[in-house]
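Lecture notes, part 5. Sequence design as translation. It can be helpful to think of inverse folding as translation between two languages: the language of shapes and the language of residues. The source text, in structure tokens, appears below.
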């Protein structure tokens, strides 16, 4: 039957998107933090029942299952990863502590360093040295390696990161250390920097390798367990896993460097946004995803959501692997509302799915954003919640906001409204920081809102930002899950090559690309893809002398892997011209008198995937719908009887003038006063700011 299933696990809900014969069906169920694979199997069971099949028959008919997971992010947030050690070159023991002197908020003198993944007692050095040209200056002292292993073994280390100076040019010492660790510490996980991030600078490579070592055991254990459960339940294929780069790949490929799945959940939504935006003629998008735990912001420009490898800070640690740029705030439906130091605060602490908001009736006793929406009448106890999985309960909600309001000197409804205003302000300010940091005026963007809670806040935020058009896909409640089905199987890797751009050794450059081609072909072959199916983007990383950061750009796009016809005597001049143009676009200036430096060659290889349908926005005008009911609600201008529409009853071409509430199966759309909702030809929603 060729089912394709996309899965995205969030802090509160696990989302599913089922694609079958061009039709997309959605499902959500509460996540199961004690064993997240259990929530996955529960959702697949429900999808099977909806198709009138047993779980075994349904999984047997699945062509692909693609999974986005937050397991690596949760590991860093909760700081419950493996007991990790670091072996590095003598003299570089404290590189992780120096962190390039970087401080996230330079104005906060009280900001403490992040919790150490590897405290100093587990950062050990060995005697060896590789020169900057890759030659061996000092041989590896194997006795010092065995002594380091003895010390780490006594500290019950479970995972070891190895990052030696210039190992990306010559990994001989790292490979030998890995062999010794396997002898001295059998069963321990090993992360080698020349495999995780084979390029300079040293801190970036060390930090990325340490993060990989910290999250790897949990990620691989979870994926192995999920793969086993799926196979036992009847799934014959390979589990494809979402990467932070916006591509998917097999679990076996991910196991080589599990850090690639960090921030992969939000990446699916951005990839899906780019797909929908292109179909609807919106090349420049502000993508906002408000779920149960977090609020994610990203930009799609010229229809693309490129992944960049560089200064990617996640949970206060640098991760240098390619990532789609997503900024995250602790603002979601489960964000807890509290009074702290006599001030109202919303988030970043979340009630999650267990116990969840008070209105879930599962034992939560702290008011959340979802509880505030219930108090304001935006949500209701009358209908099923999350697709009818359960109903919200008002029991205890009024009392909780009453206590909150008492601490602030007013009533429960005002307290709920202030929580709504504050979380809106937090998210809007987050967008302003994100766009301003890139020199982009949000007023020229179209907002695409998704996630279970995104459509409830989108028009309010757009109004504050000066945005006049908001897209809300029908699939927005599980949009990140749908995005995994849009993502291509992708391998994005690079190799270090440092030289002046006017002295490029094209033979060496071609050899490095050939090495990456062989790796990609081998991994794709294991995934069942032929070489003829693989497309390739040949890229380079360049910078001006003295710059700390590089710009990555495409030199040549090939329809088939191995086409290096672009490599020739004029490559250096073309690369410099393209770099200068990219630098001008990114930073607004070029240094005409300076010759750029090449720092790495990069190959992004991918296999095009069948895309789910996404149509444009035009639709014939239809009769205005009648509201199903009215409800006392406060959409920002005080309580009033507000028309409520049932989303599945609406047809393309219909328009709804605000203020109004539209209840979809898995989300609620708020149409503010002065705005209009249009249902387009695809059944998606478009919120438009009315003139005046």
């Amino acid at each position: 039957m060729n089912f394709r299933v996309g899965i995205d696990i969030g802090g509160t809900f696990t989302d599913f998107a089922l694609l079958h014969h061009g039709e997309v069906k959605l499902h959500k169920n509460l996540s199961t933090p004690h064993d997240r694979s259990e929530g996955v199997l529960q959702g697949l069971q429900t999808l099977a029942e909806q198709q009138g099949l047993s779980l075994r028959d349904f999984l047997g008919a699945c062509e692909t299952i693609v999974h986005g997971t937050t397991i690596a992010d949760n590991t860093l947030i909760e700081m419950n990863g493996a007991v990790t050690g670091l072996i590095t070159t003598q003299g570089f023991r404290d590189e992780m502590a120096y962190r390039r002197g970087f401080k996230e908020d330079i104005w906060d003198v009280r900001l403490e360093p992040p919790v150490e993944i590897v405290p100093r007692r587990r950062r050990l050095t060995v005697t060896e040295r590789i020169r900057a040209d890759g030659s061996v200056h000092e041989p590896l002292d194997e006795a010092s390696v065995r002594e380091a292993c003895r010390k780490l073994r006594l500290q019950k280390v479970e995972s070891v990161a190895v990052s030696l100076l210039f190992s990306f040019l010559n990994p001989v010492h790292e490979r030998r250390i890995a062999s010794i660790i396997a002898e001295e510490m059998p069963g321990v996980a090993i992360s080698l920097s020349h495999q995780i991030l084979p390029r300079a600078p040293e801190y970036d490579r060390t930090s990325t390798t340490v993060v990989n070592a910290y999250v790897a055991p949990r990620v691989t254990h979870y994926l192995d367990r999920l793969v086993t459960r799926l196979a036992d339940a009847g799934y014959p294929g390979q589990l494809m896993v979402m990467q932070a780069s916006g591509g998917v790949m097999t679990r076996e490929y991910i196991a080589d460097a599990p850090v690639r799945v960090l921030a992969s959940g939000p990446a699916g939504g951005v990839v899906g946004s780019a797909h929908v935006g292109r179909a609807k003629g919106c090349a420049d998008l502000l993508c906002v995803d408000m779920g149960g735990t977090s609020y994610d912001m990203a930009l799609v420009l010229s229809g693309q959501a490129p992944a960049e490898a560089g200064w990617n800070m996640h949970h206060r640690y640098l991760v240098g692997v390619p990532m789609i740029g997503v900024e995250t705030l602790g603002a979601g439906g489960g964000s807890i509302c509290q009074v702290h130091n006599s001030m109202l605060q919303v988030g970043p602490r979340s009630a999650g799915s267990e116990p969840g908001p008070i209105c879930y009736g599962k034992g939560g006793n702290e008011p959340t954003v979802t509880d505030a929406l219930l108090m304001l009448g935006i949500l209701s106890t009358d209908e099923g919640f999350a697709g009818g999985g359960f109903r919200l309960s008002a029991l205890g909600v009024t009392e909780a906001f009453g206590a909150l309001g008492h601490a602030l000197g007013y009533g429960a409804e005002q307290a709920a409204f202030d929580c709504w205003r504050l979380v809106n302000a937090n998210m809007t300010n987050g967008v302003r920081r994100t766009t301003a940091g890139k020199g982009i005026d949000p007023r020229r963007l179209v907002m695409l809102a998704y996630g279970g809670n995104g459509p409830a806040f989108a028009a309010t935020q757009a109004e504050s930002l000066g945005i006049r058009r908001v897209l809300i896909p029908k699939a927005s409640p599980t949009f990140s899950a749908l995005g995994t089905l849009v993502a291509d199987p992708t391998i994005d890797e690079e190799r270090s090559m440092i030289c002046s751009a006017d002295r490029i050794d094209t033979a060496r450059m071609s050899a490095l690309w050939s090495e990456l081609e062989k790796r990609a072909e081998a991994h794709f072959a294991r995934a069942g893809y032929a070489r003829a199916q693989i497309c390739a983007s040949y890229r380079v990383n360049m910078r001006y002398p003295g710059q700390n950061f590089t710009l990555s750009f495409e030199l040549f796009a090939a329809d088939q892997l191995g086409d290096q016809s672009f490599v020739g005597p004029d490559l250096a001049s073309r690369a410099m011209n393209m770099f200068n143009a990219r630098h001008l676009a990114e930073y607004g200036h070029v240094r005409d008198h300076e010759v750029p430096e090449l720092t790495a060659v990069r190959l992004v290889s991918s296999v095009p995937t069948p895309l789910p349908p996404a149509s444009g926005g035009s639709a014939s005008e239809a009769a205005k719908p009648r509201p199903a009911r009215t409800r006392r609600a406060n959409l920002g201008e005080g309580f009033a009887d507000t028309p409520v529409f049932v989303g599945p009853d609406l047809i393309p071409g219909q328009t709804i003038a605000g203020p109004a509430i539209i209840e979809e199966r898995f989300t609620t759309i708020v149409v503010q006063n002065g705005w209009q909702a249009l249902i387009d030809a695809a059944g998606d929603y478009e919120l438009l700011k009315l003139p005046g």
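The translated text above is only one of many valid answers, since several sequences can fold into similar shapes. The longest helix spans residues 202-233.
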